[in-house]
Amino acid sequence: MSKLTDVFGENVFNEATMRERLPNETYKALKESLFNGTCLDISIAEIVAGAMKDWALEKGATHFAHWFQPMTGITAEKHDSFISPTDDGKVILEFSGKELIKGEPDASSFPNGGLRATFEARGYTAWDCTSPAFVKDEILCIPTAFCSYNGEALDKKTPLLRSMEVISQQSMRVLKTFGNTSSSKVITAVGPEQEYFLIDKKLHDKRLDLMLTGRTLFGAMPPKGQELDDHYFGSLKERVSSFMKELNIELWKLGISAKTQHNEVAPAQHELAPIYSTTNIATDHNQLIMEMMKKVALRHDLVCLLHEKPFKGVNGSGKHNNWSLGTDDGINLLNPGKTPHENAQFLIFLVATIQAVDEYSELLRLTAAVPGNDHRLGANEAPPAIISIFLGEQLTNILTAIENDQPLKSGNKKPMTIGVTVLPPLPKDSTDRNRTSPFAFTGNKFEFRMPPSSGSIAGPNFILNTVVADTLSKIADKLEKTDDFDNEIQLIIKDIMKNHKKIIFDGNNYSDEWVEEANKRGLSNIKNMVDSVKTFIDDKNVNVLEKFGVLSPKEVHARYEILLESYSKTINIEGLTALSMAKTEILPATIKFATTLAQSITTIKSTGMSVDTYAQETLLTKVSTLNGQLCKAITLLEDNIVIAQNSEDDYLKQAELNRDEVFTAMDKVRSYADQLESLCDSKVWPFPTYTDLLFRV
Ligand code: ADP
Ligand code: MG
Prior knowledge:
Layout: H1 4-7, H2 15-21, H3 24-36, H4 42-58, E1 63-68, E2 76-81, E3 83-85, E4 91-93, H5 97-101, E5 102-103, E6 124-127, E7 134-136, E8 139-147, H6 157-177, E9 186-200, H7 201-204, H8 208-213, H9 229-253, E10 258-263, E11 269-274, E12 277-278, H10 279-299, E13 302-305, E14 319-327, H11 340-359, H12 361-366, E15 389-390, H13 393-403, E16 439-441, E17 446-448, H14 458-481, H15 485-500, H16 512-521, H17 529-534, H18 539-547, H19 553-606, H20 614-645, H21 651-677, H22 690-695
Parallel strand pairs: 1-8, 15-16
Antiparallel strand pairs: 1-2, 3-4, 5-6, 6-8, 7-8, 9-11, 9-12, 9-13, 9-14, 10-11, 14-17, 16-17
Helix pairs in contact: 3-4, 6-14, 9-10, 11-14, 11-15, 13-15, 19-20, 19-21, 20-21
């Protein structure tokens, strides 16, 4: 293996490469527009494109592609070759500034929620020069945003870029009131931890459900569950570790700092975390991580499952979105600091986040809404679908002392006063920190643990940025006007604690008592994706996104439709897959088993001997009864799928039908099939069982 330092970023057109390959003037101009987020002049783009092309050709690239993130949640790219024909019948290799800046992918089949009429169906991609270009599979990939011709966002990246600008502006307003003159912008940083499963490809390919839906739609629990993971790792360990090694190298080449990797709770489950970076780049990198995981797994005869709940009864996968706010000159605004002044600034950004999360908890909940997460949230392995914040005892005590004009320590006489009292050092990343909280403060950042393992982190972050910007703007309004700064801060903290402390919860989020308590506090518990999507178009939510120009009401409505449609599509595919497996694989096998039992009884009886056929008869009765029930459940599922399909003119109604009729019918089919699995001869079972998948590789 070559040295990490040689490999790292070798396929990225990064700062160092730009400095080396661009004329000084061009490099400076590019850096400037990068920093300010302004448009690049076409004459400069021309020079950048030329240098990029030469560099990419040396890396073996033959094509270029605008790489974008449509609303499907995965990435898309349309490849164009560098070749351009000349008059003399030959070709030259070209890549113009125009081609770098703007693309017109034929992308009419991506979800757009009615934002593009067919005559303008193309939409266009625009270079996001804040995220570096890279070479992947002999393609020069240019990260882009994807918009309609009217400029409406058709992708996950555009609102994210808009939100980064918004939170920077509002944070800067607050920082200026604190007398900050050194910082010029505020950047949100994210480190997403990615969970995933690895299973054997040969077994995977024998199961239609895994192939088409990414999760098992059938499967009785193995006699032993996830407590026995050593067994499985015995046989997978080597392949897994060579997978991880190769994955790391592939990611390093792309400049992705894959850092920690470890096994997770469930058998066959693992986690990878990169070192945190700017939200926008972290989002691009997470997309690449997911893509590479799938690709590299195949090279090792493994399949990487990114689904939130591949196996019933086994812990599912999520993504932990570690989020913080920092200035361009290196101040982490969620870091308590050492002086009363720094403490006050920290507390303001802290309470701003608390208020935002409480006020817009439904928007945050929405960012975790994919069909797969409905199986995971609230299933005693992930936070419930109730948003709350963990602060830790000390921080909660500090805020409570301020709220009630009390001293920080019981022995002290003086109440906790902003600008005077120094905060005690807070424990950073203590090992006993609360891992059941959906939104936990972890020393100098917040960790949002609800996001789905398969989804883009653009959603959680553009919402987080926007809602925190909203609170910061209200705080800035007050601080910019006040004559008594420290007192105003004290009042702001008191006020936010009074109105929003209900969102703070340090206890066990997995407990039934919390569900009850949260209900008493008036916190919402939105258990499924459809109900969550409904809250998207509530006035409050539409307004905050419009107020800061992150999404227009039209864009929100388009996304609302896309989300409902994608829910229906997913459940429809799952329903059809379950139907196919039950009808063409399970039922034929179980009927055959019943026939064998019946034949055994007749054969024995025909001998005329008085031999007991109790076992066969009992089993036959059970299997035949279940076969009948399974058959009826199949008919019900079939009917319900048709009913849901027929209501396609109403997205909401269709999604509700899929949830209430198709999903429940699927569960019924599964329950009979799973019972049959544990009764039948294992040799007749038509596809690999949970034991095979999880333990017997
Ligand atoms: P855990 O203990 O939860 O497994 P780590 O401490 O290893 O997590 O960090 C998880 C992720 O958080 C990593 O991607 C890390 O880079 C990221 N992270 C660390 N500090 C920050 C920060 N200030 N802002 C955003 N992300 C951060
Ligand atoms: Mg974590």
